[in-house]
Amino acid sequence: MDLSFTAEERAFREELRDIFHTEIPERIRGKLRHGLHASRQDQVEAQRILNARGLAVPNWPVEWGGQDWSPVQHYIWQEELQLACVPHPLSFNCTMVGPVIAQFGSLAQKQRFLARAANLDDWWCQGFSEPNAGSDLASLRTTARRDGDDWVIDGQKTWTTLGQYADWIFVLARTDPAAKKQEGISFLLVDLTTPGITMRPIQTIDGGREVNEVFFDGVRVPGENLVGEVNRGWDYAKFLLGNERTGIARIGITKARVRRIRELAEQEWDGDRRLIDDPGFRRKLASLEVELKALEMTQLRVVAAERQLEKGKPNPMSSVLKIRGSELQQASTALMMDVMGPYVAPFFDEHEIEFGNEPPPGPADAATAAPQYFNMRKVSIYGGSNEIQRAILAKAVLGF
């Protein structure tokens, strides 16, 4: 298999690199480079710039704003976006609900939601996980019952990322309690201003409040907001999660972090020598770089195989990317902690880092190293835990 890039693909990469570095403001990219989160305003601004260029939703059908790109071009777009530290177009809009609506939604739903999702005029969030249904998502207990032309939702969702910013939520709900658990679930689109919805923040181990729990108490949803067919929501969720798990690898983000680690190690001293000259540190760095290159080659093989996949069918090999991608994200944040040493000890929230009178001690990345390390503990769990991904590979790929 030839995994090298053609001259046209290399030119395509250079074109994207120029756009990302010149048109997305440095004040936004610099935040991400040093481990800070993009604000809601930053996310909207960056995505609208990309959307105006046709670069926000290239994975969508062309008639709804996508690009007729090859799988390799999609790969290059994602990698260069991450290497440039550009906020990724909001995943809930662009990788999750948008492709589901484009693939399975009605024409009216496509006309109503897709353009607004691409331009981030509507901010979407995900209503999948529940307190007792995380990786075992099919055990969810939130219900939706038919009442005239409407659906009435009751239940609870948790770990709803960035729900505090959202206008809409896409919800998996049980619509046939008597059916086999995977066969009685439907996919609904819910306006978060609807009466009966309560959202409460959850503070995470890194001190952040990016996730929430959401309660539904007799929430009435118009029948037209059902995506596809009743009780087919599990199929749509598998389609969505296949897209999400490929993105979770975030190879470009890890490569950018490793590049930054090397830069910092060349500046930091361990006794009478630079940290980069310490044999033990060099072994750790080299091992991470080798593992990252192996994952990159694996992703290119998955990209090459996409040409043979049935349209709309998720590739079970994306589970490999999810497993190793999440593990290497965690390993890179751990190595960043090693580089920063005692500078990681003081805690500063992001507002203090960005707007405080006194800068945190040490290099610019020091104040965010520990929060990033702790926050990254979650990546081997969300999107389907790595244990679940291994089970998927055993069944769908190895045939066990």
How is the CATH topology of the largest domain named?
Butyryl-CoA Dehydrogenase, subunit A, domain 3
The number of helices is 13
- Structural class based on helices, strands and sheet pairing: alpha+beta
How do the strands of the widest beta sheet line up side by side? 1-4-5-8
CATH superfamily heading of the largest domain: Butyryl-CoA Dehydrogenase, subunit A, domain 3
Order of helices and strands: HHHHHHEEEEEEEEHHEEHHHHH
CATH class placement of the largest domain: Mainly Alpha
Helix residue percentage: 40-55%
Number of spatially distinct domains: 3
Looking at the overall shape, the CATH architecture of the largest domain is Up-down Bundle
Say how many strands there are.
10
| Distance N to C terminus | 27 Å
Beta-strand content estimate = 5-15%
Radius of gyration of CA atoms, rounded to a whole number? 22 Å
Average predicted confidence as pLDDT: 92
Shape: globular
* Unreliable sequence segments: none
Main sheet overview? 4 strands, mixed
Question: How does this structure look, described?
Answer:
This protein has a 4-stranded mixed beta sheet. By secondary structure, it is of the alpha+beta class. The longest helix has 27 residues, at 279-305. The chain is built from 13 helices and 10 strands.
Entry keywords:
400 residues; Butyryl-CoA Dehydrogenase, subunit A, domain 3; 3 domains; four-stranded mixed beta sheet; 10 strands
